[in-house]
Structures are given as C-alpha cells and as structure tokens.
C-alpha cells in the first residue's frame, strides 16, 4: 500500500507514502513544503544538524519522478526554506537531469529569493495556479465551489489517532476538506501541526511505507 | 599554628568581644585551610558554615599581611564564592561585609549574577573586588570575556556553596569545567595550586561529592564534619475517616481545615508543596477558608516575579508574614529565623530534601525542628512513616554525579572560543582531569571539536557550516554574531518557552508556559501569583491580562514538577509497607491505614515481605497488569519498560506504561500473555543488558531527555531578546531534531547521551539486578480482581505514560480512530 488510489472530483489521484500526490489525468507530480536548504541554513548559522537532509529530499523526489514519469512537477509552496545557500546550486545541478519536465512553483511564505534565481533554476513561479477545476495555493483557504477546489500546503498537517489501552499516535496526513486539501510536507526536516480530522471529508495518514484512510 | 599566627588571634579576639565562640568544626576547617589543603565542609544551614571558610581566608590574609591588612586595597580577586542561587549571594555578601567592616579590612565584596547591572560589571572588570560571589552561569560568562585570565591572577581560593544541590546536576558540571580552567591557569602561570572547598549538607556520598569537586583525586583533601545534632520531629495530619479520604490524585486541601489551626497557633509557617500549580490552589483555598489571612499570606515559586519573591523573602526575615505557600524555591539557604512551623503537603520524595525543609524551622542551633506532614492521598501516609524510620536510621540518599555530559562540554568549548580562543591539547588535559569527563575517549574529544568546527563529520564540498575556526590546534570563534548569540544562552537550566504576563496598563506579574496559554481564548481566566487574571491577548511575546473578579479560574500546571522517590527512601518504604501489612504496627500513620489494607486484602491480596503482587484487571480502558515492587519510581520505570519489552516479544502487542513509587502498570488493548507458569522468566537476569538497551530504544524516554541536551549544546536557536521575527527561519523543535538525528546521524554523541541519561545515569544497573534477583527468588502472587484496588488506583489515574510496542504501525492504526 505504498500508494492509494483516490478518485475525487472525477479525477484520479495517487497518494504516495513518500508524501507526494500523482495526478494521473494531468501527469502532474504534486508536492509541498520541501524546505530545501533548511539544514544548510541551520549549519551556516552554526547549528550542526545533519548536513545531507536536503540531498536526501532531492533523492526521494528523483525516485518519485522516475516512478511516475510526470510531465510536470507542481510544488505548492516553500520549495526553499530561506535565502540563498549552497543547496541552490545543488538543486540546479540536480534539475538538469529532467530538462523535459516543467517545474511549477506556487509561491509560499518561505520562497523569498529573487525571481532571477528561479529563472536560472528553470522553475516557473506562480502566485496561484489553476489547472482545470483545481486551484493551487500555498495557504489553505475555505472558499470554493463545485467548479473550484484548492490544493494547498503550508501547515505540515498531521492527525492524532487513538485507540483502546490509552494508545495514541501522531502521523503526517493528506487532508481533504470540503473546498480545500492540505498536502503533507515533503521535506523530512519539518514538524507536524495537528488538525481536527472530524471536519475533513477524508484523511489519509502516512505510516512508514503505507497510506491508510482513517475516519 | 593556632597561637603563633596573628590572624587567628585577630579573629578569635573579635569573636570573644562579641560574646561568641567558634564551633569546633570551624576551627578545624580554618586549620586545614591554613595548611593549604582543599576539602569539603559538611554542615547544615544556620550554623556558621559560611564563616568556616570565609574566616579562614581572612586569617590567612592577615597572616600574610600582618602590618598593612588594615590599609591594603586593590588586591585583586582572592576568593571566588560560587552559589547556586542569586538570592543567597546577597545574604552571604551582607554577612561578609559586616565582618570585614568590624575588622577594619578594606576588602570589597562583589556579586556577579544575571541581575548585576552592566555598570557594576564594567567597574568590576577594571578593579575586581577581593571576594566575588558568583553563580555557575556567571562564572562561565566571565570565562567568555576577552582577556579573562587577567581576572584570576591573584585568586587563591574557590568555594562551592550548597554543593549538594549542584552535584548531580549539569550546573555542577559547569562548576567542574570552570574549576578545571582556573586550576589550569594557576598551573600555567606558576602560581601555587588553588585551594578548593565545597560546602555541603549531609548526603549519602560526601566522599564522592568531594572527589567530583576536586577532579583529580587529592590525597591531602579532608572532609570537615559539623557533627551537630539536629532534632527533628515529624507529625502527620491524619484524616478522620481513611475510608473517605481520596485514593489518588488530590491536592490535600481536604485536610486544610486541620492545618489552619496549626498555622494560627504558629508565628510563621512555611507550607511546602511539590509543584507550582499546587501552591496556587493552596493559596486560593486558604484565603477562601480563612479570609483573615489576607495580607499576611504569601506565595513563592519559581514562576512569579523576582521582585515579588524578594519581597516575600525579606518579609520572612522580618517576621511580618503569617504563612507562605511555596515550592522547592524556598528550599535553600536563606535564613528565616521567624519561621517556627513547617508543613509539608504531599510526599517530599527524599530524605535529604525533607530534612532541609524541616530545618527551615527552629533555625537556632539546638532548637528542635518540627515538621507536619499532610498527605494528599491515603497511601502517602506510608511514606510519612518511611521518612520517620529513615531519619531514625540516619539514612540519607546519595546524589549521583553527572558523567559524560557532552552537551555541557560543547557549550563550554564554545565559551572558550568566544573569549580568547583555546589550545585543544591544553584544554583536553584539563577536561580529562574532571570527574565528569574522566572516562571520555580521545575519539569522543575529536568528535566534539569536529562538531564545533565542521558541524560533525559531514565534509562534503557544498557544506557551509560556520561556528569555530580551527588554526592548527588553536580554536577560536571569529563571528561576532555567533559570540553574541552564545553569550545569551550560556547556562544549563532549560525551561519550556515562557512568556511574560503583564497587566494591560503595565505591571509585570510573572511567567507562564507557552503551551498553557496557547489553549486559552480571550476572556478565559487563570490564576498566577495568587491573583485571578483574565486573558486578553498575546502581543510581542507578552501575555496581556486584566484583573478578574471570577471566583474560579484555571490553574496553570507547570511541566517537570514530578520528583522521583530517592532509592534509599524506596528501600525504607518497602520495609515500612511490610510493617504496615504485618497488622501489628505502632506507627499512627500505619494504624490509621488498616481499613484500607483490609479492603485491599478483600479485593485482591496484601503482599508479604517475600512476595511480589501482580494484579490483572480488565476494565473498559483495556487489560491492565499492575505490579508492586515498592522500589521507587526510577527502578519501577525501568522494570516496567523491561517487562513490557519481554512480554512484547511473546506476541505483537502494544503497552501504555505508567508508574509511581510503589508499582507500575502495563495497559494494553488486548489480553496480556502472562500466566503463573511463565511469570518468573520476566524477571530473569539472563540477557538483561541487551533487553534493557532494546527496551529504552523502543520508548520515548530518550526523546524527552534530548530536549534539554539540544538546548544546552546550542542546537535550539532561542532568538535574540526583542528580535523574534528575524530568527524564524532557524526555529525547530527538539523533537524534530531528535527525529532527524535518529534518521540521518544515529551515531551522534548527543543522541547517545540522551539514551544514557534516560536509563543508565538515573539508576545503577546493579541496583536493578538486585531488585530483579530479589523478585525472581520471591513468591509471585497473581490475582484477578473484579474491580480496581486501593493499591492500583493511584497508578491508573496517572496520565504521564510511556508507549512500547512490537506491533506493526499499520496494524495499530487499523484499530484506532482519529481524535476529536
């Protein structure tokens, strides 16, 4: 169950345990909140977190691209964590493996670098993006209707599940609300913000290498 | 020495003139000091422990300057006096100044702590006082200044006051490291060795306490004991009907009506509780039941405004208060003579702490210290009886020294790097000579250097790690920003993110934990510092409130208030239980509990001395296993985890684990695979070490320990004061760091430290072996009660729990539901 097929709004969505969604009809790989360069940013400030988290995140993205062979990669914000550091040239090099794939970034609050940088990286930058009935925006929003549904990120969603014997777990999740879905953070150097699963239409948790629907 | 030296005569004449006589232990300490020895003075508060060393230093000074000691000024720093509490420093400085003035010695006494104004610090830098009272943190800040060796060029003596409080903590390690540098400087400059003395209350391992302080074993070092008999009388406040007194989870206020007459009949009463939230509740409740006390009742704990605390302390001095509700914040030193009564609410969890608190009353030498014990639930009365017995047998617990605290070492090395920089071989020699780091290997030393210079062993070309520059064997921090940041976070006391609480119109009330206030919405009321406040909003990291007239309010609970029973008290507790269970005890506390034990026998079983009781109970919460080794919380915790691990090897199963000082609980959603035939192998000594390591790895214990470690080692960026926004891209939680280290750098020394702290530092494996062996060779009685028993109830209601599982995550989730 490394991925779950979710038919929603007459489209086919493959929810991957590697914290990404593949939109079959549009051949789009969708991820959010990669926070590239976060560990490098910390290290530059003298905080000795492991150095290769960013590299590893890119390696995982590379494997997903190899599996799904997408025509486009949509990043729903917070692609880079902060200002320029050496993870940017690293990404540039990495990017050259996939010259035919379009990278579309929907700007998030962490994406603070100059536009010229993204041009050099061959990444298209959008404030918001609309593909057919699907709207992409970094921060979750409540508005929407039968003809418009938002995919967002930003908050690194998680849910708490509990069971008999006072058991309790907190897990990252794909959250599908009435008008808006919230994607799990792709980068591994990210925390979790707990959401109320009751208000969602569907919640899929990520447990190791599985995706499980709950509620 | 006594008769020939002039200094001795000056001091004794001065004492005689004031109608006073030195205690024998003071003269003993002076003699050893004058011989140039180092050592430890063991004396309780209120018996002139300060003078046992301070006057020794003065005598020595007069001896060395017999002609001009009345006029000689600007002599540079002679005596460094390290104290754990800023409040203590003021009192001690006052006493020292008085002596110097009367002896007409123009020495300066200075204080250096977080409260010292910048102007005073600058003045001190130009002209150091002869005596400097300092906290461990401020000592490190001093070492973090440019040209710091100059400060110490005339230093002869260092005293670590209240050493028993610091030993066994990371602040103690800060002192060990600070001393190693001061000794190193003296050696390098060819001065005579420093005289290093500790002052300690009675603890079980005084000899070890001295070894830790002195670092390298010093065969000449001596322990001077005050041998003063302190009479302590303990009396419990007993509930009238034990059947109706709560089994668990209460605050003791039900017995307040019996405590009030005691308060009224006393001059001044200190009421000790174990956690800050309890002091708030007690304060409110006393005022409700006895409004007359308004104005004469105060509150004292670590989260209220410093000025208010100082006011309370002064009011205690002058005797204007009738009662103070407090936590361990009033445990230490400061002398409150008017206090004649102490009430301990709930178990104090340790003999030493209890003695210290009892000692707050009847401070005068020879006076009897009386302390009342007020139980918060029934079984705590057994602890009262155990305390009595421990005091009678003169059993006092040991404080285990902290070893291999890499986090503190990293912080210290950074401190050296931001001042003048350091030569690694020189510092390595000094560090290796401390007790804390004597078992550190050269590889580990290289790792710490690499951690600070290259950010670990990740040496790939893209890396931009910057902290300390390495120039051969010389290490220095050249970034002013890094240096400033480091200075702000020197110290090892880690608390949750705390926010200031202020009135809308200004006026600081106290501090509150961020997570508590995060749950509030505008209009909610809570109590702090004895006041009921209405939450308005959070602005600029400050909680704004207004006064509220509400009668009821949420009481903030502060984390980390739990104290484990000390191992020694654990043993006495077991003996006391045996006595209680025998049915023919004479202790009033135990007699009053008989109906409870009868109920326990009726529902389940009352274990004998050579038995271990296990209760298997099924409730709507799930399947419970309760076991009662009576070993104290620390051993029970490890034993519970070990048992859970061994049971989980039998079948895929998940446990939630809870424990207290008497026993522990394993709770599961499925029946627990345990029968009378296979129960003994759970306590077997076979493969113990391997099983222990595996069981700690499968719980969250290490993750919790990692929090402090990450902060101390400088991995958590705490921001600059007033500049919260700029640092937001450097925020991360300790829990997240724990995850990434576990995943990407599992050999990290700081991770290893977290695992060690979780298990092996808090208890000796030898003691666990002993306990397991005792149980293995005893009779294990398993009962299957229909309902909860008096023994298990306090454990079951405990909400602080560990998880241990051998099930697949996916399988567990399938049985669970989202939380609403």
Automatic annotation (TrEMBL), chain A:
SUPFAM superfamilies reported in the protein's UniProt record: Metallo-dependent phosphatases
Underlying gene: pdeM
Coiled coil: none
Database matches in PANTHER family: BLR1149 PROTEIN
Domain of life: Bacteria
Listed Pfam families: Metallophos (PF00149)
Record keyword Hydrolase present: yes
E.C. number: 3.1.-.-
Example GO molecular function: endonuclease activity
Protein name per the record: Ligase-associated DNA damage response endonuclease PdeM
Keywords: Endonuclease, Hydrolase, Ligase, Nuclease
Domain Calcineurin-like phosphoesterase: 29-136
InterPro entries: Calcineurin-like_PHP (IPR004843), Metallo-depent_PP-like (IPR029052), PdeM-like (IPR026336), Pesterase_MJ0037-like (IPR024173)
Automatic annotation (TrEMBL), chain B:
InterPro entries: ATP-dep_Helicase, DEAD/DEAH_box_helicase_dom, DEXH_lig_assoc, Helicase_ATP-bd, Helicase_C-like, Lhr-like, Lhr-like_DEAD/DEAH_assoc, Lhr_WH_dom
GO biological process terms, semicolon-separated: DNA repair
Name of one Pfam family that matches: Helicase_C
One Gene Ontology MF term: ligase activity
UniProt key word Metal-binding: no
Assigned keywords, A-Z: ATP-binding, DNA damage, DNA repair, DNA-binding, Helicase, Hydrolase, Isomerase, Ligase, Nucleotide-binding
Organism domain of life: Bacteria
Helicase ATP-binding domain location: 30-221
KW Nucleotide-binding (keyword) present: yes
Matching PROSITE patterns: HELICASE_ATP_BIND_1 (PS51192), HELICASE_CTER (PS51194)
Domain Helicase C-terminal residues, every copy: 255-403
Protein family according to the UniProt entry: Belongs to the Lhr helicase family. Lhr-Core subfamily.
NCBIfam families: DEXH_lig_assoc
Protein name per UniProt: Ligase-associated DNA damage response DEXH box helicase
Organism: Chitinophaga silvisoli
């Amino acid at each position: 169950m490394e991925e779950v097929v979710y038919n929603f709004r007459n489209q086919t969505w493959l929810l991957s345990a590697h914290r990404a969604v593949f939109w079959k009809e549009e051949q789009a790989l969708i991820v959010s909140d990669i926070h590239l360069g976060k560990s490098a940013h910390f290290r530059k400030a003298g905080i000795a977190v492991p150095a290769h988290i960013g590299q590893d995140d890119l390696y995982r993205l590379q494997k997903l691209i190899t599996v799904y062979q997408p025509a486009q990669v949509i990043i729903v914000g917070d692609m880079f964590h902060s200002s320029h550091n050496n993870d940017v040239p690293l990404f540039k090099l990495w990017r050259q493996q996939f010259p035919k794939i379009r990278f579309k970034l929907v700007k998030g609050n962490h994406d603070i670098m100059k536009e010229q940088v993204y041009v050099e990286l061959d990444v298209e930058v959008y404030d918001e993006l609309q593909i057919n009935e699907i709207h992409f925006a970094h921060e979750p929003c409540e508005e929407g209707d039968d003809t418009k549904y938002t995919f967002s990120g930003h908050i690194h969603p998680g849910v708490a599940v509990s069971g008999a014997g006072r058991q309790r777990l907190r897990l990252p999740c794909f959250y599908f609300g009435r008008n808006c879905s919230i994607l799990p953070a792709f980068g591994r150097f990210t925390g979790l913000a707990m959401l109320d699963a009751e208000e969602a239409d569907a919640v899929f948790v990520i447990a190791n290498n599985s995706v499980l629907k709950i509620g | 020495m006594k008769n020939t030296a002039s200094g001795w005569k000056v001091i004794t004449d001065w004492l005689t003139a004031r109608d006073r006589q030195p205690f024998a232990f003071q003269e003993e300490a002076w003699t050893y000091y004058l011989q140039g020895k180092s050592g430890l003075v063991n004396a309780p508060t209120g018996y002139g422990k300060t003078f046992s060393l301070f006057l020794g230093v003065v005598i020595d000074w007069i001896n060395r300057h017999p002609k001009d000691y009345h006029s000689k000024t600007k002599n540079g720093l002679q005596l460094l006096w390290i104290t754990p509490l800023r409040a203590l420093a003021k009192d001690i400085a006052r006493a020292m100044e008085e002596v110097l003035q009367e002896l007409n010695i123009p020495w300066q006494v200075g204080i250096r702590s977080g409260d010292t104004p910048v102007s005073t610090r600058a003045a001190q830098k130009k002209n150091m006082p002869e005596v400097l009272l300092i906290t461990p943190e401020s000592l490190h800040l001093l070492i973090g200044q440019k040209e710091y060796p100059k400060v110490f060029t005339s230093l002869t003596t260092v005293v670590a006051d209240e050493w028993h409080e610091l030993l066994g903590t990371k602040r103690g390690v800060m002192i060990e490291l600070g001393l190693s540098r001061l000794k190193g400087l003296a050696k390098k400059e060819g001065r005579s060795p420093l005289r290093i003395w500790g002052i300690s209350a009675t603890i079980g391992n005084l000899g070890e306490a001295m070894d830790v302080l002195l670092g390298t074993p010093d065969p000449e070092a001596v322990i001077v004991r005050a041998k003063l008999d302190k009479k302590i009388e303990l009396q419990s406040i007993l509930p009238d009907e034990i059947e109706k007194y709560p089994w668990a989870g209460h605050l003791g206020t039900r017995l307040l009506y019996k405590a009030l007459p005691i308060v009224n009949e006393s001059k001044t009463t200190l009421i000790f509780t174990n956690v800050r939230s309890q002091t708030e509740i007690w304060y409110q409740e006393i005022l409700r039941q006895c409004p007359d006390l308004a104005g004469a009742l105060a509150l004292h704990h670590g989260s209220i405004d410093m000025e208010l605390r100082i006011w309370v302390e002064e009011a205690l001095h002058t005797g204007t208060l009738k009662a103070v509700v407090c936590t361990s914040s009033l445990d230490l030193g400061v002398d409150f003579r008017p206090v004649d009564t102490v009430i301990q609410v709930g178990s104090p969890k340790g003999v030493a702490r209890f003695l210290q608190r009892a000692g707050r009353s009847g401070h005068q030498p020879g006076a009897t210290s009386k302390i009342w014990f007020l139980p918060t639930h029934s079984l705590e009365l057994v602890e009262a009886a155990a305390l009595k017995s421990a005091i009678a047998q003169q059993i006092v617990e040991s404080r285990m020294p902290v070893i291999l605290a890499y986090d503190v070492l990293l912080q210290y090395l950074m401190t050296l790097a931001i001042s003048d920089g350091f030569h690694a071989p020189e510092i390595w020699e000094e560090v290796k000579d401390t007790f804390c780091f004597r078992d550190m290997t050269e590889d580990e030393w290289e790792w710490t250097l690499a951690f600070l210079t290259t950010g670990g062993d990740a040496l790939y070309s893209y890396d931009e790690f910057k902290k300390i520059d390495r120039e051969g064997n010389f290490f220095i921090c050249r970034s002013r920003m890094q240096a400033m940041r480091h200075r702000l976070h020197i110290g090892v006391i880690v608390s949750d993110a705390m926010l200031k609480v202020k009135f809308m119109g200004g006026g600081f009330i106290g501090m509150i934990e961020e997570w508590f206030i995060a749950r509030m919405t505008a209009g909610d009321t809570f109590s702090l510092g004895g006041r009921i406040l209405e939450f308005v909003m959070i602005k600029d990291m400050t909680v704004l409130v207004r006064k509220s007239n509400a009668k009821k309010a949420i009481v903030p609970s502060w984390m980390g208030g739990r104290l484990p029973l000390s191992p020694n008290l654990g043993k006495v507790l077991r003996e006391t239980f045996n006595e209680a269970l025998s049915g023919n005890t004479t202790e009033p506390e135990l007699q009053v509990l008989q109906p409870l034990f009868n109920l326990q026998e009726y529902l389940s079983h009352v274990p004998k001395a050579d038995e271990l009781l296990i209760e298997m109970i099924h409730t709507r919460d799930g399947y419970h296993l309760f076991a009662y080794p009576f070993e104290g919380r620390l051993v029970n915790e490890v034993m519970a985890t070990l048992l859970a691990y061994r049971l989980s090897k039998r079948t895929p199963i998940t446990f939630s684990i809870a424990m207290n000082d008497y026993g522990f609980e394993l709770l599961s959603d499925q029946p627990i695979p345990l029968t009378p035939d296979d129960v003994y192998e759970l306590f077997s000594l076979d493969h113990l070490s391997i099983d222990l390591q595996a069981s700690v790895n499968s719980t969250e214990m290490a993750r919790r320990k990692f929090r402090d470690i990450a902060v101390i080692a400088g991995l958590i960026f705490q921001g600059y004061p007033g500049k919260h926004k700029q640092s937001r891209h450097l925020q991360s939680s300790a829990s997240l760091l724990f995850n990434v280290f576990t995943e990407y750098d599992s050999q990290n020394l700081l991770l290893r430290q977290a695992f060690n702290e979780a298990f092996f530092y808090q208890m000796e494996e030898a003691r666990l072996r002993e306990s397991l062996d005792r149980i293995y060779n005893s009779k294990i009685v398993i009962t299957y009660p229909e309902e909860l028993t008096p023994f298990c109830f306090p454990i079951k209601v405990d909400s602080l729990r560990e998880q241990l599982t051998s099930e697949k995550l996916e399988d567990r989730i399938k049985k669970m539901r989202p939380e609403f």
